[in-house]
Design brief:
The protein starts with a strand and ends in a 7-residue tail after the last helix. Helix content is about 25%, strand content about 25%. It has helices at about 40-50, 70-75, 95-105, 115, 130-135, and strands at about 1-5, 25-30, 30-35, 55-60, 80-85, 110, 120-125, 125-130. The protein has a six-stranded mixed beta sheet. Strand 7 and strand 8 form a beta hairpin. The protein has one domain (about 1-140): Metallo-beta-lactamase, Chain A, CATH 3.60.15.10.
Length: about 140
């Protein structure tokens, strides 16, 4: 397993605090996941300018906000999975419908924590992704 700290660079100069989020890529023989925090388009562009490798799973930046997940960023990552970490009935309206559509149009399967619960990612002989509600369902339905 390899961990790569990608952002922010040591010489960072940002105007918005969201763009100070730590971006970490975890790579294994089975695949890679990109943890993006709350980065927005300027940080995405900075990552693209430094070269960002393809990754199988992306934790969607900024809860699926309109200020993140540019077409260029998604195209460079070419993820198979897009996991949206968002609270149920987000008061900010996250995730944005157009952001979800960009991931789907790029061929990513979208998993939302507000609808599907916690997401379990397992790297072993292969890549496994399973949502909590898929694993256990609601207790009153069992």
């Amino acid at each position: 397993m390899r961990f790569e700290f990608l952002h922010p660079p040591l010489d960072h100069a940002v105007t918005r605090r969201n763009n100070l989020s730590c971006v970490l890529r975890i790579a294994t023989a089975a695949g890679a996941v990109l943890l993006t925090g709350d980065i927005e388009r300027p940080a995405e562009l900075a990552l693209l300018s430094r070269g960002i490798p393809r990754t199988e799973i992306v934790i969607v930046p900024h809860h699926g906000s309109r200020s993140s997940s540019s077409r260029e960023f998604i195209a460079a990552l070419s993820p198979a999975w897009a996991i949206v970490p968002v609270g149920y009935r987000s008061r900010f309206g996250h995730p944005a419908a157009e952001v979800l559509e960009r991931y789907r149009a790029a061929g990513a399967k979208v998993v939302r924590t507000d609808l599907e619960g916690a997401v379990h990612i397992r790297f072993g002989a292969g890549l496994q992704i399973e949502a909590e509600r898929q694993r256990r369902g609601r207790y009153w339905l069992q």
